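Entry 14. Structure prediction run on the chain below.
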Amino acid sequence: MADYGQLIKFRLTFTVVLSSILGYLLGAEGSLNWTSLIALTLGGFLVVASSNGINQIIEKDFDKLMTRTENRPIAQNRMSILEAGIFCAITGVVGVSILGLYLNTYAALLGFASLMCYAFIYTPLKRVSSLAVLVGAFPGAIPPLLGWVAATGEFSFIAIVLFLIQFFWQFPHFWAIAWILNDDYKKAGYFLLPTPTGRSKQSALQIIIYSAILIPLSFLPHIFGLSGEISMIVVTIGSIVLTYFGVKLYRSLSITDAKILMFASIIYNPLVLVSLLIDKV
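Output returned:
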């Protein structure tokens, strides 16, 4: 069971599903449909679990090279590729089916697209180009959009706003992690910081730019009637703080400031969705 927990990256999967649930609650009107919410939770969990497992199957030989991943079950041959492949196929098919049968076609398509993009485009691209982060930001931004579409059955401008906030948030978040783990990533030949210069001012400047984009995006949920002024202030302040920590990293280029930025980004994501939910109009 511990190996399966590692295979699906349980904590990461849980946080991804949580953002889908919050997106669902933002889109839901009237009494809560518990059947739909349970279907979203279970289906979303299985899809993300499948994506993470396929990621480890593809990266088996490279996981052995990095301290962070060397103890994963497939890398250590505690679990065969066949066993993991069967598990991922079942969880992926069942997860997408649940989204389609109990929610709607849009939800199933988003779940399927997220799985395909993460497992089969983002994962192999990591060893080719830093553009992998851009590609990976698409499936990473789908969860709140999926939750909204599951609740409403439609794509709306607010749904796109939720997608955009999650999309641009991922760049400072992931690049902060890549900054911290850059030496470990190099062992496996991964190119994840935004510029070939690695831990440099050029890379830090990219972090500042993508963090700063979140500031004007913070106003949109209020402007388009999803939430009130309080959440707008909270989200805007959070975006400014994230940008400030990006500036600190630009000045110091230190791993310490990268860790501060990473923790700030971890807090930022649920802060945005929860504040919008609490202040929902």
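The mean pLDDT is 96.
Filed with the rest of this week's runs.
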